[in-house]
Design a protein that fits this description.
This protein is of the alpha/beta class and 161 residues long. The chain is built from six helices and five strands.
């Protein structure tokens, strides 16, 4: 039996914390579907296609990782994929309350869904995509927080070549 999990998120942009969850998730699961949320109500820094390409380049061409996108409810996406394990990263205790509520709501909507929480590494717990965007926008160095291809793309986007 193959064990596959969905790792959903906005990944705008991908961070080293996301990469850590992907690498460590592959130690538990046979494969991961990294599912980029296309939230049309939020303005994104990078398009869904750009985010997928940044992740694909950062992760490499590991055949155990599939990149996809979805809109709407995660449970609907999980049903379409027939994959009912969700992998979520936690940075701090403050993440847990929201993620716990979300996991329980998902389970209420789709009883087959289980969520596995994985703590990020101690070197990434303070990093969030939102903070990376903010620092990059203001000209700060984010090269230690994101993969090199993403740092280059952020520098290009904000004219910091």
């Amino acid at each position: 039996m193959s064990h596959l999990a969905i790792y959903p998120g906005s990944f705008d942009p991908i961070t080293n914390g996301h990469l850590s969850i992907i690498r460590r998730g592959l130690e538990i699961f046979d494969g991961l579907v990294v599912a980029v949320l296309n939230n049309t109500s939020k303005e994104s820094l990078f398009s869904v296609e750009e985010r997928i390409e940044l992740m694909r380049d950062a992760v490499g061409r590991d055949p155990r990782v599939e990149f996809d996108s979805f809109e709407g409810l995660l449970v609907e996406y999980a049903r379409r994929r027939q994959t009912f394990v969700v992998l979520r990263g936690l940075r701090a205790v403050s993440d847990f309350e929201y993620e716990f509520q979300l996991a329980n709501m998902n389970r209420k909507l789709e009883p087959r869904i289980d969520t596995l929480f994985m703590m990020t590494g101690e070197d990434s717990f303070y990093i969030s995509s939102r903070l990376v965007r903010e620092v990059a926008t203001l000209g700060g160095d984010v090269s230690s927080m994101v993969p090199p291809n993403c740092a280059a793309k952020l520098a290009q986007r904000f004219g910091k070549q």
